[in-house]
Design goal:
The chain contains 12 helices and 12 strands. With 444 residues, the protein is an alpha/beta fold.
Length: 444
């Protein structure tokens, strides 16, 4: 009875109370064919130790990143989670199914949100940041809608090098509001060429990655200058926010709205979620920012306190005036990122970013030695594109079968014109021995 919530005696009592003799009598109105088809044929119950051994044996058949080196990135990145992160962030005070968006939010939660906002603003080089968004893709889409509200224009230029799934979310958001999404081509560096931007007085925003989907660093300063010259805003999207510990923040390079994904800050990959969207902007755009904002103040006695300063969700104001209808914030995941960033600190985060960059550069150098092409010449952070000798999806299957390594993401999934393009991600989780194994497997 370990796995069944009611005893046989309790079930008999319930059946008697409703006036039927058996479960079959209770389900009699359901056609027999449906009842037979719904039967779950499970083995007999086992003692818990035996069951655990059976489940562990089944789980051992699955590949996992501890036993199978994986060089997948593309928006979800393998990083080490220090033990302090779950120890603090998963305390009962923070681990709750309730989304704390009402005015009666506890002071501790508000202070944690305030600290999160402060760190995100510092990373992005912006004046203000909100309390987080659903994830990186919806943050990018909300950034585009905000640019549309600010400029009152309906055309958006999206770089081909933006994360394809982020672009899909932007297009989905824009379907019912007449948003005209157009693609910016990229050059041989793998980045946007500012001189080729088709800007006019209808463009609300230029949207680029920082770094982009291919890991390449875009020339943000030049793109910002071109966009502002046409009265448009520059919206950036950073799927791997650790890069901001090494690169200049988009705010310092002229971006107006900076968005990103914070999964790299101590959040496990978890099969793709839940994650946390990052959103920062200029103070002059405060009233158009989606989500909510926690602020610091003092009470009547001079004691420091925290308040929900801005709440632009449809629960708080008229639906037609709401600037965010997707998510208030990812409270628990933002807490994890806050603890992670606090634990590493400014200098620790920079050291980690340099380590990621160095390991990726080592991998690139080894691949060049083996004669494998790197189609993009621009500087990269911790992921890059390799041109394989055969179609990349075939190569990935072969390397997994022969070497037990997940080599990366075949780009043909999103870019049919790049059948041999393989997106490879290298982080601090990849020791030199695993990188060398990957290089040898790809070169065979």
């Amino acid at each position: 009875m370990r796995y069944i919530s009611t005893t046989e005696a309790e079930r008999r009592a319930m059946l008697e109370a409703i006036g039927v003799a058996s479960m079959d009598d209770l389900l009699a109105p359901v056609p027999k064919a449906l009842r037979d088809g719904a039967a779950i044929r499970l083995p007999d119950a086992e003692p818990e130790p035996d069951l655990m051994r059976r489940l562990k044996a089944m789980a051992a058949k699955n590949a996992d990143s501890d036993r199978t080196p994986s060089f997948l990135g593309a928006g979800v990145y393998p990083h080490f989670q220090p033990s302090v992160v779950p120890h603090l962030a998963l305390r009962a005070e923070f681990l709750t199914s309730y989304t704390p968006y009402q005015p009666e939010v506890a002071q501790g939660t508000l202070q944690a949100i305030f600290e999160f906002q402060t760190m995100v603003a510092a990373l992005f080089g912006m004046e203000i940041a909100n309390a987080s968004m659903y994830d990186g893709s919806t943050a990018a889409a909300e950034g585009v809608l905000m640019a549309r509200r600010v400029t009152r224009r309906d055309r958006v230029l999206v770089a081909r090098s933006l994360h394809p799934e982020y672009r899909a979310v932007i297009e989905t958001y824009g379907q019912r509001i007449g948003l005209d999404v157009q693609t910016i081509p990229i050059g041989p560096t793998g980045a946007v060429e500012p001189a080729r931007l088709a800007l006019d007085d209808r463009v609300a925003a230029v949207v680029v990655g920082h770094p982009n989907f291919f890991g390449v660093v875009e020339p943000l300063g030049e793109i910002a200058e071109a966009a502002h010259g046409a009265g448009a805003l520059l919206v950036t999207s950073t799927p791997e926010a650790l890069a901001l510990a090494l690169l200049k923040g988009p705010g310092a390079l002229g971006a107006d709205i900076a968005t990103g994904e914070g999964q790299c800050f101590g959040v496990p990959a978890s099969y793709g979620g839940p994650h946390v969207g990052l959103f920062a902007t200029r103070e002059r755009f405060l009233r158009q920012m989606p989500g909510r904002l926690a602020g610091e103040t003092v009470d009547a006695t001079g004691k420091r306190g925290y308040v929900l300063t801005l709440a632009t969700r449809e629960q708080h104001i008229r639906r037609e005036a709401a600037t965010s209808n997707i998510c208030t914030n990812s409270g628990l995941i933002a807490m994890i990122a806050t603890v992670y960033l606090s634990a590493l600190g400014r200098h620790g985060l920079a050291r980690l970013a340099r380590q990621n960059h160095a390991r990726a550069e080592y991998a690139k150098a080894r691949l060049r030695e083996k004669g494998l092409g790197l189609p993009f010449s621009g500087p990269t952070f911790n992921e890059f594109v390799v041109e394989t000798k055969r179609p990349a999806d075939e190569t990935v299957r072969r390397v997994l079968d022969e070497a037990g390594i997940v080599a990366g993401l075949p780009l043909s999934r999103f870019f049919p014109d790049m059948p041999k393009g393989l997106l490879v991600c290298v982080t601090e989780q990849h020791p030199k021995a695993d990188i060398d194994r990957l290089v040898e497997a790809l070169a065979r």
